[in-house]
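agent> Task received from the user: take the single chain below, predict its 3D structure, and emit structure tokens. No templates, no multimer pairing.
agent> Plan: (1) validate residues, (2) run structure prediction, (3) serialize to tokens, (4) report one or two observations.
agent> Step 1 OK, no nonstandard residues flagged.
tool_call: predict_structure(input=
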Amino acid sequence: MADTPSFDDLFLIGKAEQIVNRPDLQVLEGDVSEMLLMAAAAMADKCVEDSARRFRATYVDGAAGDELTQLASDHWALVRFDAVKSTGSVEFSRSDDAAGAGVVAAGTVLATQPDVNGLSLRYILDTDVNFGLADTGPLVGTVTAEIEGIGGNVLSDTVTRVVDNLFDSSITATNPSVMVGGSESETDAELRERVREFPATLSKGTLASLEYGAKQVPSVKNTTAVEELGGGVTVYVADASGNASASMVAAVVEELINWRCAGTVITVEAGVPLLHDVEYTLTVRTGTNVLALTPIIAASIEGLMNSLKIGETLYLSAIQTAIRNVDPVNITEAVISLPAANQEPSAFELIRPGTITRIV
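)
tool_result: status=success, residues=360
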């Protein structure tokens, strides 16, 4: 395909057209005739640029932002996922029943303890929790993060502060398990990946289509479908942090009704994060700023480990490649001392990064 004309090409085309129509016309540098030609060429160049951009946006790799959202919706009926709030359960207890019966009302605000900057994450109680006359707990309620995104996926026993006043001041709260399901808005790269996966799902009932179908639940970011020897399929699911909740599993079970073959038994189970620490030693060329490379290497290793699917093996060679790719010229060798060997998780486990340390 021929190249699109440049500004200079458009200027020369305009000049040639003028001379064809007016052979006696002189286009002099700095003259009004040249200025008019340059203005016309600039407008035409802008039109060429806009047309080229719009044409590029008709391809998955060329579109971005709103244009990619529209392309995915128009061509494949795929809607970009918005950010999702994390959810979880909270247990309420009290020291005695002296305050009698009462209700911890839906809408009650709970929070994590403030960090060093005085900031905390807030969670809203979804439904009433009713204390009977003799109830001391623990009684369970569900909560939803006030903010959207992965930041709400906090560890167990961290949502321990009751912000609002309750009918019984002795009531305490804690989350017995991790908060799950929080995720950021779907990125362009994630949406492109989902578009590319879509054709393989048109024949529903395949392992690929079951994995894809599970991802239609917005909080699900990692899926692996495994065909069992005795028949049936198990689909393991997890959020961006590698965790899953009963409500997430239930949502996937309901969604996969639309993706399974009739008569096929589909079991959905929660994935379990498996944290692995990494320790490595570098050999570099003289003069290389190793301190500057260290956080970049850590980010590269984290990116590798966070890309692994449920049940996918972590290879030492892949860690070495992630390190070398940071600066292939100056990093001459990377020796991995931890883990000591390739790490092959169970079918339901999802490898995620623990502590990453450079051994000096």
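agent> Step 4: summary for the user.
Residues 273-358 form one domain.
agent> Done.
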